[in-house]
Amino acid sequence: PVVAVLNGPNLNLLGERDPQAYGTATLADIEKLCLETGDRLGLDIDFRQTNHEGVLVDAIHELRRTAAGVVINAAALSHTSVSVRDALAVVEGPVVEVHLSNIHRREAFRHHSFVAEVADGVVTGCGARGYAMAVEHVAHLVAAAVE
Ligand code: DQA
């Protein structure tokens, strides 16, 4: 089974961008962590990043039936995008949202996430480790569904 790990705008700049909020891990480090977690759980990881809302919507459509589950950090689009939310609503497998920072401890405009409304779970504020936790939770939900 394949778990898609999707990343939205500006996450390509991790490592240099606001390390106070997001830590020092680069997106390549996070990809490696996801691949290691996938290896341990017998899952292939399809790891992607885009700065473009429509590209993210297209990726979700492409993966909606083939991915066993989706982990998504839609970044700023979490707080703005009804189209990303609506695309995620048609994903067949489980969806787990992840944020590096604790969005509830930050500016008010980050407190609401459209993605959370269609997610099976949310991991926020656990840094890069949150991605591993999210992949593990998707694996758990996928295994529970086939039992
Ligand atoms: C983020 C939180 C968002 O509010 C922000 O726009 C991001 C990153 C996080 O991982 O903490 O780009 O999704």
TrEMBL record:
Catalytic residues in the record: 22 (proton acceptor), 99 (proton donor)
Its EC number(s): 4.2.1.10
InterPro entries: DHquinase_II, DHquinase_II_CS, DHquinase_II_sf
Positions bound to substrate: 73, 79, 86, 100-101, 110
Catalyzed reaction equations: 3-dehydroquinate = 3-dehydroshikimate + H2O
Pathway: Metabolic intermediate biosynthesis; chorismate biosynthesis; chorismate from D-erythrose 4-phosphate and phosphoenolpyruvate: step 3/7
Function: Catalyzes a trans-dehydration via an enolate intermediate.
Subunit structure: Homododecamer.
Family per record: Belongs to the type-II 3-dehydroquinase family.
UniProt protein name: 3-dehydroquinate dehydratase
Protein's organism: Nocardioides aromaticivorans
Native organism taxonomy: Bacteria, Bacillati, Actinomycetota, Actinomycetes, Propionibacteriales
Encoding gene per record: aroQ
